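Worked example (supplementary).
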Amino acid sequence: MLNFQVSPGGSLSGSIRVPGDKSMSHRSIILGSLAVGDTEISGFLEGEDSLCTLAAFRAMGVNIEHESGGHVLIRGQGLQSLQAPKEALYLGNSGTAMRLMVGVLAGQAFPSQLTGDASLSGRPMGRVINPLAQMGAVIDSAAEQRPPLNIQGRAAHESLKAITYTPPVVSAQIKSCLLLAGLYADGETTIIETGISRDHTERMLKGFGYEVKKDGMTTTIAGGGTLTGTRIDVPADVSSTAFFMVGALIAPGSDITLTHVGINPTRAGIIDILTMMGGDITLANEREVGGEPVADIRVRASELHGIDVPTHLVPVAIDEFPAIFVAAAVATGRTTVSDAAELRVKESDRIQVMVDALTAVGVSIEGRPDGAVVDGGPVRGGQVNSHGDHRPAMAMAMLALRAETPIVVTDCDNVSTSFPGFAELAANAGLGITVVNGEAN
Ligand code: S3P
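After joint prediction of all chains, the assembly is encoded as:
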């Protein structure tokens, strides 16, 4: 079991590029594997989650060459080219991989099984099983619609049924699952969302030459077309930069530039929220790379103040709340987060994990069913448990920049699911972090 031991104080500086975007990395493998022709990916995230997706498509016969340095070449053979895997497809910690891939597998003529680690095995899958069942898929799951998922093969030449569906929660994973299943459906599949969720699937499908219609919150795809191989440059993951943004804002004297970051508006809510809190964040070199907006982000130490996080920003910053709670812990005044109940079903119950961790270092935080209330103040230091969740682990490590004594974060092995090399990069930027072998508390 790996722990982070982080000494108090210090500041962050320099210019760094964090690893590639996790959402886009998964999608690049999935769509490249379903396309006809070569797809060349650069900037691919070599984290455990996206590598599981890569291995899963290899196990279904897709020819994928992978060199270190984020270069991947997929020699795709089209929508109907996948072959039955010999074993269950293991997707590690990744809810995204499971929820997106079940959409693809629902359209195949062979049966398959999707499994994951202990965290993934506890996550709700009814949100994708139910609409896929309406499309005619037959998917068996463990109790309460949790993984493993067993997906029945379809009779030869039998398409899925196109549906129009309004997901019960705002979720890019549900939307993307249904868009992928929609590739195998007999007409137009339409998803009507009740809030904005990340749109990487739609943008990337267009990059593969596949039409997706957007009309406000309604997204429509017709089945039976062809994806054409393409080039994909995966930018740095804004969710991984979030830890450095918060660290630089809260540590006096910090001035850091995060380069080549994806700032798609359906992902970049963290920039709006931290700016509202008084953060000095400037974007430079804004450009479009492969259909996605990208920029360099400069962040300087700032006096933060608490805010009521606007609820419309919650889905577009959904993965950043561990970092936002850390910013709130040292801000002046009260920060309130609501309408964020989804945080309870992420890789961990992120409300409870952050309440316990921040309370352990003397921060005043009260959990609520759909969020939390944080009153900023001094941070003592101490030992906190990330419960195997990568994002609380990295967020709590950054809090040491403002702690009075060291912070030890336990159970940090899963940081490598999304951010391989986090500790080294953070240490180079100025965080007093060492990785030690230890026992969980
Ligand atoms: C993701 C969507 C989000 C996010 C997850 C990645 C994606 O989940 O939390 O880390 O790549 O589509 P939901 O769509 O369930 O909100």
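Two points are worth noting when inspecting this output. The mean pLDDT is 97. Residues 167 and 193 are 6 Å apart (CA to CA).
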